[in-house]
Amino acid sequence: MDIIKTTTIDFSHYLTEQEISAIEHEASIMEYREAAGIEALKIIQEHRGWVSDDSLYAIADLLQMPSAQLEEVATFYNLIYRQKVGQYVIHLCDSISCHLQGYDEILAAIKAHLNIDYGQTTNDGVFTLLSNVCLGGCDKAPTMMIAKQHYQQLTPESAIDILTTLKEKAVTAKTKKTKGSNAND
Amino acid sequence: MTDIPKALTHPLTHLVNLEQPLNIEQYQAQGGYQGASKALHDYSPKQVLDLISESNLKGRGGAGFPTGMKWSCVPMFSEDDENAPEFKYLVCNADEMEPGTFKDRMLLEGVPHQLIEAMIISAYTIGANRAYIFIRGEYHLAAERLQTAIDEAYKASWLGDKIQGTQFKLELYVHSSAGRYICGEETALINALEGKRATPRAKPPFPQVSGLFGKPTIVNNVETLSNIPHILKNGANWFKELSPNSDAGTKIYGASGRVKNAGLWELPMGATIREVLYQHAGGLQDGLALKGLLPGGASTDFLLPEHLDTPMDFDSIGKAGSRLGTGGLIILDDHNCPVAMVLNLLKFFAQESCGWCTPCRDGTPWVVEVLTRIEKGQGTLADLDTLNDLCDFMWLGKTHCALAPGAVEPLKSALRYFHDDFEQHIEKKCCPYAKGH
Ligand SMILES: Cc1cc2nc3c(=O)[nH]c(=O)nc-3n(C[C@H](O)[C@H](O)[C@H](O)COP(=O)(O)O)c2cc1C
Ligand code: SF4
Ligand code: FES
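Above: the input entities. Below: the structure tokens describing the complete assembly.
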């Protein structure tokens, strides 16, 4: 008698072989399967950009753990995205050394340039803006991190230049993709 | 003085190369893995433990707990003891998320083999056969370089079974986290490694007895561990004499804020604040004067210009009313608002509170609310009493971990030292530091 409706997703239909084998490797070096939860979430995010509800259920199924327990872990970390994010997530450091060295101006410049606030994604789906705690580059503040790359000693101008370059990259990648799929049609 | 090799005066950093760290052959050619070799071949675990205790090495992760004493709490078993646990664990804390702290990153990115060598010796001493490096998720380059170095160490028989022909075996893994300051607290870190929500654990039991997966576990900071190979190589006396008037060894000091030459320097333990700030960081940028400073990261009490001649060791900074913490100076200049600085710090602690203890979960956002009001010029003098009360509610002994007391330290000291600034915000009904005032 199921009073609470639970959702499960059969991982074998939902996850790719590549994803499963990467997660299995992580599970094999831990004492029990659940301990690989955080690694599994990161693997899925690496492949899919973010962690949807269905992804979460599939991982829970693969690791044989309650999805609520995995959700408890997923929502704890700020580098796990539980909502769809843009192609590039901007992690702008808002901690103390950056605050003392011009963080306000960088934030204002980025917000004005992209016309979004913290937690939002640009209409073209290229950028999401998030804050981040100290990135460990305090001697070269202000700093931000985008796609594993750390950018330091930012000025409002250099920050915008970085975003412009990334945006161009995103556009070229997109046109290439469209061309590619046209050719297949 | 000039002919003393750098290896003896700057043990931690003399091999740092941030462009391209030494590979295993290069590291060995520079004397690397000699400490581990000595430990595994010539010393019993007990002898290494005694050496580390004698060296007077204290933890560099913030609390300054004597490393030898910590290790000596791990239960030891003879080989045929039925009660021996299947595993003991050694964990390196490379979570480094304390705002204003960036020293471990240099060691991780610049000389990964030094940490691996240190972990081999440490694991051998406590009898651990599995070890993890718990690294914050944002340190991608460091994690990559560590993995490369670990792969090299396995190939060269410095990790795995029968290390260098001895009976000792060690598996070493890198676990990269996903961003949350509390994961650096050692019991939260253990929960995180177990795949659980990373809230701290109530102590006792202490991790040395029952830690990761319920087994005896030692958690040590990157910089703490990195000292170990050098103590093995050069002896406990050498280590103590590195800083004749102070705590043993060297310390990696840092400085950030609006100084001329922010950065990191390995100096004998007990260098004065003045030496770090003026000799190495070049003093404040032109047109700015020193107003105050945090001596060791976000969760330490403010000190003032009158404290400049305080040696930066655990005791002296303690006597001056603060904590050495991580040794990373955060400099407040006279053009930055102290209220805004404290507000920034408290926002950090409020955001990073894990939510387990009421004083921390509710106290930190309450402080943020009151400070925001004051900074905007809408505060009252009664707000200052509220802040002082909140400092008491969140102080040591009232919460499960040191995050909340750590948040109190800069707040309480700012209320005392920068009282006039707080009052001016209230009387003038605006921030006197804001542009146009
Ligand atoms: C909220 C909080 C965060 C911490 N973060 C770190 C950290 O990032 N790195 C670290 O080495 N120690 C951190 N610590 C201290 C650890 O709990 C622990 O004392 C330390 O890793 C012990 O290593 P040591 O004895 O080598 O210093 C933190 C403590 C608290 C309360
Ligand atoms: S003091 Fe704060 S961070 Fe530490 S356990 Fe309590 S609620 Fe969590
Ligand atoms: S405070 Fe921004 S990098 Fe440390």
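Note for the figure: The longest helix of chain B spans residues 358-375.
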